[in-house]
Amino acid sequence: MKKYEFPKNFLWGVATAAAQVEGAAYEDGRGPSIWDAFSHIPGKILNGDLPDVACDQYHLYEEDIRRMKEMGIKSYRFSFSWSRILPEGTGEINEAGLDYYRRMITCLRENGIVPNATMYHWDLPYALQVKGGFGNRDIIKWFLEYAEILLDNFGDMVDIWATFNEPIAVYVGHANGFFAPGLKDEKYARQCIHNLMVCHGETVKLFRKKQLKSAKIGIVVDVWPHKPAHPGRENDEQMALYKNEIAGYGMFLHPLFLGGYSEILMKYMKENDLMPRIEEGDFDTMCQKVDFYGLNFYNGLIDDAEKPEKKRRREKQGGNFQDTREYHQEALWDVLHMLKEKYKINVPIYLTENGYCTEGEADRETMLDDQVRIDYLEKILYWLNRSIQDGIDVRGYYVWSLLDNFEWSGGFYKRFGLFYTGYETLERIPKKSAGWYADVIRNNGIETDKFD
User: Fold this and answer.
1) Model confidence over 348-394: pLDDT tens digits?
2) Catalytic residue IDs
3) Rounded distance between C-alpha atoms, residue 356 and residue 416, angstroms
4) Residue 388 C-beta-side C-alpha neighbours within 13 Å
5) Phi-psi region of 281 (alpha: psi -120 to 50; beta: other; left: phi over 0)
6) Which of 51, 83, 112, 255 is the most exposed place for a label (fewest CB within 10 A)?
7) What is 217-255 written as a DSSP string?
8) Residue 384, number of CB atoms within 10 A of its CB
9) CA dihedral 116, 122, 125, 129 (to 10 degrees)
10) Cβ(91)–Cβ(29) under 8 Å?
């Protein structure tokens, strides 16, 4: 058996998002988000599932934090609900919302768990969406108002801040229609993500002005790398290029880390009348120096232009499109090297999300005995360890997710949790993977003879 040990003080964590676990959607002054509105439109969410209660972490956070401590979890990645703090998106602050997060973060710190907070994880206040949402350039001042409230109240309590999680969800929700707010207007979607990246840069500048001594700030961008099934075959090459550079990670990583949109993306937008309104200084603002980069990685994908893509069952889609049983964990190594070599990312990296889903049609005992999840995660950690040995500066790893939760358009059907959630009873039951991950943390690595 060979041991793959991780660096000293490596941050082992778990991740969730407010809209997926908190529940209490209409309690203590919280306003509706775009996902509250979207999920109540018939047919948008599998089985008509609603996030109204979800895992009810709003009331059960102490219980969840106790479980994390028992596992040895070093860091908890969560997000703030914008509409719980500002029910109308701007203006009057909901003190009950601030109080909830203050209590939750205090509980984390008292239990020795590092808070890793995301300002925006897809749940825009509905009151702002009706004003144009991210497509309205006023979103910059709206977001800064919200960000300043967070930093003024929790800046000295949270160690790791991310401005946005997976901004591609904003694109999907405005261009493709199956995420909130459910629009199908690619030009508008391009404007939304442009404005979002300006929001990010302005928030980083605001963060620097606050001079928070122990906190750091970054952004989380997911990478689903596409490779041609037949290298050298033009159709496959073009398909992969489009999904990487035009409709994937390239439309974010290039402006955030290299400055401006890539030539490939600019050409595409100009030829298809999709150019967003760009103001002077926008690209400089987007390209602010961050303290870390958060990578969400689940799988590598192979594109074969001669084989039509399997039509995804829309009703089963969650936030992570693992609709194949072909997994390419080795692609993580390629992605981490790409970040360093192509995008010149020279700040510490956290693998802020990684996980494996099972489907809710299985019986509970089958879901608890999740060896398939362990096998997937173990191989991910092998490739992560190899990347670190190559000199890639990865400081932490977060499993998605602590709990089975509301998986966006997939409702409660997709289960990513280390803990099984009984949605009727709100019970949490540890899966086999929870015990395995606790061992990984205790040993600061994995021991296996499956690789090399």
Assistant:
1) 999 999 999 998 888 899 999 999 999 999 999 999 999 999 999 99
2) 166, 353
3) 6
4) 21
5) left
6) 112
7) EEEEEE---EEESSTT-HHHHHHHHIIIIISSTHHHHII
8) 23
9) 150
10) no
